């Protein structure tokens, strides 16, 4: 259903953007509209460049500080730049509605609200509150024939503990 309505929604958005630009041009003049559009492109480019640089620096720092495995955990800390970059992109798209949506993505209170709403919707769409989902969890705990697979947990971040029956252990 959503896939069928998406092209219609994009067309309606474009028509609304053009209509608003015509209204502003009638009220303030064509030069004002050009200034708004050019300012949006410049501001959006600056925001994207700054957010991208911040993400790259965070990734570089985490990789240098702790290696690949700890760097991934350190990179997951803090706030992501996805909504900031989306806001910059929306500012670069010509139009007043896209500029307003981009500004909503840039301000911290509305960005937090958008992030929380998006996470809630993704979790609801996944069907479970846990990130793997019930089906993945069940698939990892059972073999294809439905029997529970017995075994031991091997952690790669710790050296293996010596076994009691190991012939190389001192007695």
Walk me through what this model shows.
This protein has 171 residues and is mainly alpha-helical. The chain has a domain at 2-47 and 78-106. The chain has 6 helices and no strands. α1 (2-28) crosses α2. The protein starts with a helix and ends in a 30-residue tail after the last helix. The model is unreliable at 70-78 (pLDDT under 50).
Mean pLDDT rating: 78
Uncertain residue ranges: 70-78
Number of alpha- plus pi-helical segments: 6
Cα distance spanning the termini: 71 Å
Strand content: under 5%
Shape: elongated
Written as H for each helix and E for each strand, in order along the chain, the element string is HHHHHH
Helical fraction? over 70%
| Structural class designation | mainly alpha
CA radius of gyration is: 26 Å
Q: Number of DSSP strands? A: 0
Largest beta-sheet characterization: none
């Amino acid at each position: 259903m959503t896939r069928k309505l998406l092209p219609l929604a994009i067309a309606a958005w474009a028509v609304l953007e053009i209509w608003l630009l015509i209204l502003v041009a009638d009220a303030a003049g064509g030069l004002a509209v050009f200034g708004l559009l050019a300012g949006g492109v410049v501001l959006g480019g600056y925001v994207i460049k700054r957010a991208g640089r911040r993400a790259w620096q965070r990734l570089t720092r985490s990789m240098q500080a702790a290696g690949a495995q700890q760097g991934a955990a350190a990179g997951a800390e803090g706030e992501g730049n996805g909504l900031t970059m989306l806001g910059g992109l929306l500012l670069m798209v010509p139009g007043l509605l896209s500029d307003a949506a981009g500004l909503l993505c840039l301000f911290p209170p509305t960005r937090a609200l958008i992030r929380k709403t998006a996470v809630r919707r993704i979790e609801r769409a996944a069907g479970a509150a846990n990130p793997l989902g019930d089906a993945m969890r069940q698939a990892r705990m059972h073999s294809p024939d439905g029997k529970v697979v017995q075994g031991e947990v091997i952690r790669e971040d710790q050296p293996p503990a010596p076994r009691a029956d190991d012939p190389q252990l001192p007695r």
